[in-house]
Amino acid sequence: MEVVGAAETEIRALKPCLLRRNHSREQHGVAASCLEELKSKACDILAIDKSLAPITLVLAEDGTIVDDDDYFLCLPSNTKFVALASNEKWAYNNSDGGTAWISQESFDVDETDSGSGLRWKNAARQLKEDLSSIVLLSEEDLQMLIDAPCADLAQELGQSRATVQGLQNTLQQVLDQREEARQSKQLLELYLQALEKEGSILSKQQESQTGCDQTDAVDLGGYREGSSEAALRSRLLTVLQEKPAPELSLSSQDLEWVAKEDPGALAAALSWDVEKTVTAQQACHRELSLRLQQVQSLRSLRSLSARRSSRPGARQEPKRARRDPP
Known about the structure:
By secondary structure, the protein is an alpha+beta fold. The chain is built from eleven helices and four strands; from the N terminus they run αββαβαβαααααααα. α9 (252-260) crosses α11 (274-309) and α10 crosses α11.
């Protein structure tokens, strides 16, 4: 019974592995109980010349040299090895799938995907050595670690899935904070640009307003320069420019000033052509004439009423309050 138990223990100790030569896609399945046995079988199966011994076994995933028997026993089953002769050096091959926890579909991925897988594993090892290196990882590396399968990342870091899930959530928060900081910076830059543009526009408007006031003081018709007259003139120009029917918004005195003003000077002040300026002056003149007619009509009515009330023999009785019937 003890002999059988020892045989079973020896059988269980055999570790299935995958072997291939460097720059070759052909793989061979081998079972070995120790590192030396695996090297011996590699020479026989891969037909490596004895003159090229001793051979070196490296991990097909990243070229790690496996020269310790205890480390070999810690590797998972179906780990891929590359057998290197004494004159060979390991070279990365995109057909390398890594160890047993990578599914068979990964053998068919293209070079970009394989390189990406190797990159997130390197980032994971960096985190394993120093967790504070999160702040040094690029956003691309953070995104790859977030997108990495939780089980694979847990095995790479030697942690439980729950711990790795919490780590991925933390990485997502770091990535979100970087994105928020970038967006805040962009908004601040846009705000500063808007402020600068608005300040430039206001400065130009003030310069333009100052130029208009100076033009009004020089060109528009012999008025004394003064702040009140300049403000009045500026208001008239604003009404003429902005109102669809400015003659209805001006007083009679303003209408008279507009109607009598020189068309060329007024056109220059309004930045209009002379034809449009003359049309506006005619509209102001018509409105002024209409108002004068209304005033004359009111005066005539008042005069007629006064003559009737002062007619001889006209009896004016005092007005009495009307009594309401009981």
